[in-house]
Amino acid sequence: MGAQKNGGVRARRDLRSVGALARVRAADLRAGAPSVGNVSYRPLRLPLSVAETRPDPQHFLSSLAQRGVAVELETPDLCFLAALYLRSERGSLASFPEEHLVDVFEQANAVIEPEGGASRRATHAIRRLREQRMLARVDGAGVLRAGEYVLTRLATGIVEFFLDDETLTHENLTLLTHTLLASLSSVVSAARCARDPEAWRGGVVGPLRVTIAELVSGIQRRQRGFDLRQEQLQHEIAALLQADWFGAVDRCQSLLDATSLTLRELNQVLLRDAHDLHAALQEIQDASVAAGVQDAEETCRVIADQVDRIAAWGAARQRAWSGYYQYVLRFLRDIVRIDPSRVTTHRVRERLAGQGGRPFALMVAAAPAPRLLRDVEPPAGERPPVRRRRPKPEPALSEEPAEDPQTKLDTDVRAVMASGVRGLGELTTRLTSELPESQRFVAAGRIAYTAARVSRPDARAERPWVPIEGGLEIEEWTLGEPE
Amino acid sequence: MSGFVTLEDVIEADPFPDVDLALRRGRHVDRDDADWYAFLVDAQALLEGFYRRFGCELIHRTDGYFYLLPTADRLGRRHLSSGEMLVGQALTLLYLDPASVEHSGVVTREQVLAQLAGVMGADALVRAMNPKRRRYDERVAEEAVRSKVAEALRRLATLGFVEAIDETRVRLRPALMRFAEPARAAVAPEKALASLVAAGELVLTEEGTDSEETEPDALEQPDALAPEDSEELE
User: Fold this and answer.
1) Cβ contacts of A342 on chain B, cutoff 8 Å
2) Does A365 sit within 8 Å of B183, measured CB to CB?
3) What is the pTM (predicted TM-score) of this model?
4) Fewest beta carbons within 10 Å, which of A264, A286, A307, A398?
């Protein structure tokens, strides 16, 4: 099954099934968006016509997005379109009267859905197809009578994609390149003889844009067909092996060989004829440059680019195919032929599921990476030798005798008492007179404690409170002789 | 016909340093490594003797790949972790699956996870990838599985079992058939396993045992790490 996505179109193609299924999304134009058919289907009609000027991709995509372009086509609608296409081909019909549309729908419906009820759905199907610009009314009679309809380019393009099985073969490629060379030869002759703009237009530019471009497009279209066929072939080989493991080996081998041979032949033809095509185009281009016909020169350049792409296709596909071919060949030789009953797969699966005996682990070499030492570059110029950074030495400490504040206070208290002071108030006044006021309260307490240590205070029950300097009051003790 | 007459010719050949380093680090060299493989095919006879002196065998499988198998402790060696083994076996199943032929053996990480979960069961996979956890949060454990599978794929890619194409895709390579060796022999799988163990191709492990890497002559060094300290994973 191949899948192709192009612009707003998504199509799925299954060549193996009778009923081709296509689901082409698109709901363009609810309110009369112009020319949906053109924008949606153009990628399927290959390649670009050299006569047209391509729009800027960014601008073109923005335009598509703004208009909400989309196509939606269900299988019955696609079958209806295909039936109309075939009917018009066989009957050489230019258009379909309305009753013919219904008639064809019923016939198509009878094939895909044998149950009845088609007439009402025919109306809906015709409406849907008209809304999506697959069918166009061409009579212009309006309500006066039933209409005449034709398939649009969008509809015929979609049907042709599923109907035609165009792919590149050695025969048709040779035929196409020979026709192309013959056509180019006549254009070369015309270019040699052309003397006026009219002769250039009619004999050179016109054929280049129409005949030559169509032939080149034909080759490119078949190349894409070949790509699609190759993708299906890869799927087919996998499916063959799935279905019949060992029995499919020979069939796979022959499919691979046939495709390889075709690719090789195609590449040979392309390489050989591309050279002749380029030579002819070069001659036309030289003549057009000499005559100053810019139009012809530009057209030759565009066609030469297309020929380059065609030639490059062969080499690219052969490279890609070579990788696939080698892989499948190895698969057939190393796996399928060696294990015809697929017992290896079965055993590995069992082991992975934990039912295949004791677990094991593979041994692998694991030598450490070699250590690569850096090259040492000597520093430029003289630099001081590197030394370890040392911290600054701390300043030397001097030894000082420790002074006990209590001992000093004892000495001071004894000295004042030795001078004959016996009252705690006076003692405190003398010892705190040089201290700041904020320290006198604390100092008074320590002096009282020291005085009680160095002498025996008179322990009367009543001890009067006396003021001392600094706004403090203390109990007045009568102190004895210092001990 | 070999283009090399002496070992000196082999060592002086341009590919030798890269191929030698790659082989010593456990890399498997197959036909996709076109130059290296051609060099090894040419120099095989001379290199076999060369590597034997290092206590290794240069193995060439009929599936089309070379690798170095250490049979002594002269060259570092390790066995693959349980995660690497699980992922390797899942990759092998994908390699054997004809469906992978359609894309020339290119598979996504999701396909590997789906293969593991499909064959082992999701619960068993989570337990196997989180062997040390007795209780776990489902979301965290699943995330751990994904990251461990990614890590295992990365390691298997460095060993040449797969080729990493981008973040999510790998190309399967013939060396994956090493994971299927015990299952390929005509004899019973357990017998095949025993002979492969005897040949030093693989070791029997318990569940949850992870990779151990042995430095050359590690046991002779007094300050060598104990085996459990040299575990590379987790």
Assistant:
1) 96
2) no
3) 0.63
4) A398
Q: Compute the distance between CA of residue A247 and CA of residue B71 in angstroms, rounded to an integer.
A: 41
Asked if B205 lies within 8 A of A359 by C-beta distance, the reply is yes
Same domain, B106 and B150: yes
The residue out of B58, B75, B92 marking a domain boundary is: B75
pLDDT digits (tens, 9 = 90+) for A36-69: 333 333 333 333 444 445 678 888 898 888 888 8
Please, is A440 exposed, middle or buried when counting C-beta atoms within 10 Å of its C-beta (0-12, 13-18, 19+)?
buried
Q: What are phi and psi of A368, to 5 degrees?
A: -65, 155
Whether residue B165 sits in one domain with residue B109: yes
**Domain for residue B11, yes or no?**
yes
Beta bridge partners of B212: B231
Q: Do B197 and A323 touch (CB under 8 A)?
A: no
| Number of inter-chain CB pairs under 8 A, A vs B | 163
Beta bridge partners of A360: B204
First to last CA, chain A: 123
Residue A229 has pLDDT above 90, yes or no: no
Helix (H/G/I), strand (E/B), else coil: B213: strand
Give the minimum alpha-carbon distance from A15 to chain B in angstroms, rounded to a whole number: 18
The 10s digit of each residue's pLDDT in A95-150 is 888 888 888 888 888 888 766 555 557 888 888 888 888 888 887 766 677 788 99
Structure tokens, A267? 């590449």
Tell me if B94 is assigned to some domain: yes
Q: Please indicate, yes or no, if residue B114 is contained in any of the structural domains.
A: yes
Mark which of B75, B92, B122 sits at the end of a domain. B75
Domain of B14?
7-75
Say whether both B53 and B90 belong to one domain. Answer: no
| Residue B114 and residue B54 share a domain | no
Which amino acid type is present at position A211?
T
Q: How far apart are CA A472 and CA A466, in angstroms?
A: 8
Q: What is the Rg, in whole angstroms, of the alpha carbon atoms belonging to chain B? A: 19
Query: Is position B165 within any domain?
Result: yes
Q: C-alpha A305: how far from its chain's center? A: 29
Q: Which residues in chain B touch residue A364, judged by CB atoms under 8 angstroms apart?
A: 26, 67, 77-80, 159
- Provide the domain count of chain B: 2
Q: Are residues B69 and B103 in the same domain?
A: no
Which CATH number fits the domain that encloses residue B140?
A: 1.10.10.2260
Judgement on whether residues B112 and B146 belong to the same structural domain of the protein = yes
Helices (H), A371-475: 405-418, 424-432, 437-454
Write down the residue that tokens 């050359």 correspond to: B216
Q: Which of A242, A351, A367 is facing B89, going by the closest CB pair?
A: A351
> Could you tell me which residues are beta bridge partners of residue B68?
B58
